[in-house]
Design goal:
5 helices; two-stranded antiparallel ribbon; alpha+beta
Length: 168
């Protein structure tokens, strides 16, 4: 197996579960590792033999990723890796990923944890009042229509009652 075959197999195995950026980060790591080991004097075959099956490596990466999500999504502050491309930072590395205290993580139907941002304080009350106004407006309109139709509904009910009483 060549280095390219190793990376292709690893990429295909990871691509099913991870984002494109996470797959690229892992492929970049293993590409760099292989090149560093070759620079130390090992042959490509020796390095790849030492790494083992890329599908097994992918399975391990996916298991670690799943465990990391389950363990860290309950905390407010987490350390994450950034390649520096987001937020305009010039250098890559580890940094604090600070979500607000009100961020909650829940499991989705697909087995992945998703971040749910909760609303609190003034914004919460404003949204609640707006929702209640809409509900009361809809209910008020429905009752106004029913009130206007009430005489007809009473007459129709009486006619049906008489009909059933004599012909039923």
């Amino acid at each position: 197996m060549t280095k390219q075959e190793f990376l292709d197999t690893l990429g295909r195995a990871l691509n099913r579960e991870l984002s494109e950026q996470e797959v690229l980060d892992n492929l970049r790591y293993y590409d760099t590792y292989i090149e560093q080991e070759k620079a130390k004097g090992k042959t490509e075959d020796q390095v790849l033999l030492g790494l083992g099956d890329p599908r097994l490596i992918a399975r391990t990466i996916l298991q670690v990723d799943e465990q990391r999500e389950e363990e860290t999504y309950g905390t407010a502050d987490r350390t994450v890796y950034s390649d520096g491309s987001d937020a305009g930072y010039a250098d890559a590395g580890y940094g604090e990923d600070v979500y607000g205290e009100k961020d909650i993580y829940r499991s989705s139907p697909f087995g992945r944890n998703v971040r749910v941002h909760t609303v609190g304080g003034f914004k919460f009350w404003l949204i609640l009042i707006a929702v209640l106004v809409v509900i009361f407006a809809v209910l008020g309109t429905a009752f106004a229509i029913l009130w206007k139709l009430l005489p007809f509904l009473i007459v129709a009910g009486a006619v049906m009652w008489v009909y059933r009483k004599f012909f039923g």
